[in-house]
Amino acid sequence: MIEAVGLTKRYGDKTAVYNLSFQVRPGAVTGFLGPNGSGKSTTMRMILGLDNPTAGTVTIGGYPYRKLPNAPRQVGALLDAKAVHGGRHARNHLLSLAQLSGIPARRVDEVLGVVGLQEVAKKRSKGFSLGMGQRLGIAAALLGDPQVLLFDEPVNGLDPEGILWVRNLMKSLAAEGRTVFVSSHLMSEMALTADHLIVIGRGQLLADMSVTDFISANSADFARVRTPHTEPQLREKLASALTEAGGHVLPEQDGALRVTGLPLPRISDIAHDSDVRLWELSPHQASLEEAYMRMTQGAVDYRSTIDQKAGLQQPLPPGAQPPMPVPGQGQPGWYAPPPPHAGYAPPQPGQGPAAGAYGAYGAPAAPQGAYAAPAPAPAGANPYAHAAPPAPQAPAQPATPPAAPAQPAAAAPAPQAPQPPAAAPASLDKAPPAPAGPSAPAPSAPTTQPEDAR
Ligand SMILES: Nc1ncnc2c1ncn2[C@@H]1O[C@H](COP(=O)(O)OP(=O)(O)OP(=O)(O)O)[C@@H](O)[C@H]1O
């Protein structure tokens, strides 16, 4: 098990991770989600002892990584697939990692087979595609047959077959009782792969719960109701009756009604009492992606602005119309508008979440729901309220990911630590607690500088 308690990391003025507490348990795939720059890689580096926490602790099986007996054979990681010596053959790369950890050479051939790189084992990795590099990185992580595996964006650059393979690999590793912690930006993939999610935003915990709970907690379930299109008055009649009964009714583009706030049997009863026939009454739930966007929209650091292309375009002559869009190709000479059903539109700074035609995913447009994205904490109270520090040092390449070799002497059982203060769903309707100071146990740890080894 991986356990973080009050984990904080500052790089100079920049707080990359703040007071993060969570557990990653064996026997499940735990997805690690967060917008760009939210601190996922920093957290993973601290787990692997590549960065020192400014405060707090993180342990694997009860030990900080650097004190873990036989660490390279207990923990395997893929942090950066490009962190390989490009001039080495794939096999030699793995062989050198194996030798450093006392792993027999035959294991190298085994993992080359597992990741499907046998054919290119004697090829220099600098000629590898992105996907092949990812496979080589995964092979390195598997070398030691470790109980604990960390993967930072493992499906980056993989084709659909490769993505499916990684998904099945993660699941089978977890099914064998291993601890699998995997970060990804591909929500659809996480929905299929992960059992549990840890979501962070601006270095702070936003959610620690099962995928199913996360989706239902961060999305409003709704019902689609369709009345016979031949009798539009029935639709109006039903909409009024449902609204009167306390439901929230919005029109769908195809003429159906999207209803929130009433259970399906109640909708059915109301329709029956109103003498309205139904052609459809179906339950719906937002996808993980929608739920994730909804939760993290308040914690996104990098947003695109509309490109004004100032001075780059000839102004249209008075009365002239812009060129007609070409279906599927956007508008010639113009940037294509976002797709009409994209649902999520990033809110402008200072505004609440963008409401689509029906509000954000059928939920109230204003972030008042129990799981609305937290409002920013007052300036001064929260390290993230500070203006961005002057250009943080460009992150250097992480050190070669710890090749994790094989079945370690079972790690000492993790001392049962107190349950970390995982963000309880109910607390998420409020602004994050003003982090006046780390509240979790914060054993002294060396304060590191931006030039920390990565
Ligand atoms: N060595 C460093 N020195 C200074 N700032 C750093 C360093 N490493 C990370 N940061 C900053 O810490 C913040 C968190 O970065 P991190 O790479 O952990 O985020 P992330 O969630 O992994 O992002 P992404 O999804 O884009 O990979 C960022 O603002 C980043 O610029």
TrEMBL record:
The keyword Chloroplast does not apply. Transmembrane segments: none annotated. Residues 311-351, 367-454 are annotated as: Disordered. Keywords: ATP-binding, Nucleotide-binding, Transport. Residues 315-326, 335-350, 389-405, 432-444 have a biased composition (Pro residues). The keyword Lipoprotein does not apply. GO terms for molecular function: ATP binding; ATP hydrolysis activity. Belongs to the ABC transporter superfamily. This is ABC transporter domain-containing protein. It comes from Streptomyces phaeofaciens. The lineage of its organism: Bacteria, Bacillati, Actinomycetota, Actinomycetes, Kitasatosporales.
